[in-house]
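re: that chain from earlier
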Amino acid sequence: MSLGLEPGTNCMRSIVVQPADPATDEARELIAQLDAYHIARYPAESNHLLSVEELRQPNVTFLMSRVDGQATAIGAFVHRGDYAEIKRMYVLPAFRGQKIGRRMLEEIESRILAAGLVIARLETGVHQAEALGLYEKAGYLRRGPFGGYAEDPLSVFMEKYLTR
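^ sequence. v structure.
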């Protein structure tokens, strides 16, 4: 849990990132918004979205961020054996620019390390400048396709070696 100042005020906000069930109504709503975002920008063959059922598997850690109790962001990682794959990062538009995505990414990385892994990989799209900026600022480097991904001109593949 962390606290932060509400932009433009001296009021403290409570920001919490913790595990959540992706099958809850709040999580499903954020997942649906993320799906709509991707579907509007990329053809079906370039969308690599995990379903709610896939997000509930034992090798998946699904997290939700709340600001003063309101669900504001989601993120997950899949334990792939020798690396973790970050999936389903999304921040509600009204909460973007408030470092919530960065806090979510930091929590995901911390949990990846706690799971005994040191490599985090992800796939994101070329039309997601904010996501690319977040990952690059966090130290992720571009790489080629990994796992079951094929080369795709609309995909950007990234990787980071995590340290404690």
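The CA atoms of residues 17 and 27 lie 13 Å apart.
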